[in-house]
Amino acid sequence: MKGVRHYPGFLILTLGCLLVLYAPLVVVTIYSFNDSSSITSWGGFSLRWYVDVLTGPESARFAAAAWNSITIAVLAATASTAIAVAAALAMIRSGRFRGKSATYALINLPLLVPEIVTAVATLIFFSVIGLTTGYLTILIAHVTFCIPFAYLPIAARLSGIEEVYEQAARDLYATRTQAFWLILLPLMMPGVVSGYLLAFIISLDDFIITNFVKGAGMETLPTAIFGSVKQGIKPNIMAISTVMLAVSVLFVSLSYLVNRIGQKTRT
Amino acid sequence: MAGGVLPPPSNRGGTGWGPLRVPLLIPTWVMIGIFLLLPVLLMAVYSFLTKEFRGGVIWDFTLAAYDQFFFDRGLFGDEPPVIEWTYISIFWRSIWQAGVATLACLLVGFPTAWFIATRAPAQRTVWLFLITIPYWVNLLIRTVSLKFLIRDNGPLNEALIGLGLLDHPLPLVNTNLAVQLGLFYSYLPFMVLPIYAAVERYNFALSEAASDLYAGRWTILREIVLPMVRPGIVAGCILVFVPSLGAFLAPDLLGGAKTYMIGSLIDEQFKGSQGNWPFGAAIAVILMTMVLMVLMAQARAALKGERK
């Protein structure tokens, strides 16, 4: 019986929801290919603003910011994924223990504290311990808030893997290390890859916390874009935005596909 | 023991991760404990310190930051205190803006979640994927894109004028409406996902039973569906309201001086030599307290719901 599931107007609202979510992104993507130097009028299709980002007057600044963003995202995603794998093994494979729910709360703490509060608290902490704000402080902050994003898919995957695989390996005299590297880790891989990709995007996207702990003269792509946008939206910003948008969509799609493949090989 | 072979290790049950528990958890404890939990506690201490000129602090404990937030003692601080409305009204505006955005997200998010949850399973993943993609796109870029779209001579106004719906551009940027739209746009997926999860678990036989007893579809929605999926709705509202309350980008980029919110107020206290770190810390503490109160109220309500 279809009747009770159907409500008139819900389809329209769903399509409206998607329109609101996508319209700004689609419009900026289209205008990033605009040949005109004014952002208001359409002057035909061109890649000139992409060329401008690579070779124009601001290119050195954007290149440095992009380098910082990418290296920080790679390092933060790697570190937070490693930490999250270790945490997931302890939380899911070592039975009950005292402090388990406290540890669970701690892992989720970065999701509970409002971003602006994390930003303020982290800045004050670095200032009190006398650590000069810069690349290192951004990296530390990123590793910290990426942990829950890496943890969730990894823990979800690990709790779906039965203990019998490891036990079988141990029965055949594999050491715990061998059982982990040869059996458990390959089974966990879809979760690990998914967690890594999400942590990477979260790091790449962060603005508020980075803006507080970056220090003078240090820029990541979001803070550089924010600095430019304060003086008005220019076409080269739309070109950079479109590239970052494409990177985000690519990574999320990859994460989604890896998860899908993981589900098909569900143990 | 046959053949003198040792019993396989797993005969003891489990997979042997127990002894490694502490070393496995140390990195998490250190990173989040030292670089987030400790800083939040330190921030609370900092809010009681004395402000020094040039943005520094002196380690003398005082209530000055909270006093500045709530009371006006005149230019020289010697007049009898009256209530200072500047900061309270910024908080009130933030609560109002976040509330409007949450309500708008609910009104659009519930039908969307319902619609997706009533599709065939294969279609659901596609719809959900479409809803989640924008969340993963940089919030700064999304907010800038929205500003580009709704600005005075932007594509939205041009389209509306072109269609003959308007004869002069509708000024949206720098208004409360633009900030509400920005918050709505930023956090809409947070409303859809938990409600979807609740609707997916809903037993449609209940609706069918009510329908057989001649209840109309809106009566069923109000009397049966909404109470059943309430936890999802509450979770969605919190996930939208809490980040909206402390939002920085939407009010900063889409709003103006008249739409000032908590996020910008905090940000300002840490900028250059004009800043006031203890005051900024105090505002952050007040914000954090409000968020904790919302979360605890929800946890209590959830516990009560379980006991029923």
UniProtKB/TrEMBL annotation, chain A:
Topology of the protein relative to the lipid bilayer: Multi-pass membrane protein
Q: What does this protein do?
A: Required for the activity of the bacterial periplasmic transport system of putrescine and spermidine.
Q: Which organism is it from?
A: Gemmobacter lanyuensis
Q: Which residue range or ranges hold the ABC transmembrane type-1 domain?
A: 66-255
Which Gene Ontology BP terms does the record give?
Answer: transmembrane transport
Instruction: Keyword check for Amino-acid biosynthesis, yes or no.
Output: no
Q: Which residues cross the membrane?
A: 12-33, 70-92, 104-129, 135-158, 179-202, 237-258
For this UniProt entry, what's an example GO CC term?
plasma membrane
* Taxon lineage: Bacteria, Pseudomonadati, Pseudomonadota, Alphaproteobacteria, Rhodobacterales
Q: Keyword annotations for this protein?
A: Cell inner membrane, Cell membrane, Membrane, Transmembrane, Transmembrane helix, Transport
Q: Where in the cell is it found?
A: Cell inner membrane; Cell membrane
User: What's this protein's family per the entry?
Assistant: Belongs to the binding-protein-dependent transport system permease family. CysTW subfamily.
Q: Does the keyword Lyase apply?
A: no
Q: Which domain of life is it from?
A: Bacteria
PROSITE patterns given for it?
Answer: ABC_TM1, PROKAR_LIPOPROTEIN
Protein name as annotated: Spermidine/putrescine transport system permease protein PotC
From TrEMBL, chain B:
Against InterPro entries, the record matches this protein to:
MetI-like (IPR000515), MetI-like_sf (IPR035906)
* Transmembrane segments annotated in the record for this chain: 26-49, 56-75, 95-116, 128-150, 177-199, 232-250, 277-297
Q: Give its localization.
A: Cell membrane
Question: What is the membrane topology noted in the UniProt record heading this document?
Answer: Multi-pass membrane protein
The question of whether Zinc is a record keyword is answered with no
User: Where's it mainly located?
Assistant: membrane
Which keywords does this chain's UniProt record carry? Cell membrane, Membrane, Transmembrane, Transmembrane helix, Transport
Cellular component, GO, one term: plasma membrane
Q: Which residues form the ABC transmembrane type-1 domain?
A: 91-298
- The superkingdom listed in its UniProt entry is Bacteria
Please provide the Gene Ontology terms (biological process) for this protein: transmembrane transport
Q: Which family does it belong to?
A: Belongs to the binding-protein-dependent transport system permease family. CysTW subfamily.
* Name used for this protein in its record: ABC transporter permease
According to its UniProt entry, this protein's organism is Gemmobacter lanyuensis
Taxonomy of the source species: Bacteria, Pseudomonadati, Pseudomonadota, Alphaproteobacteria, Rhodobacterales
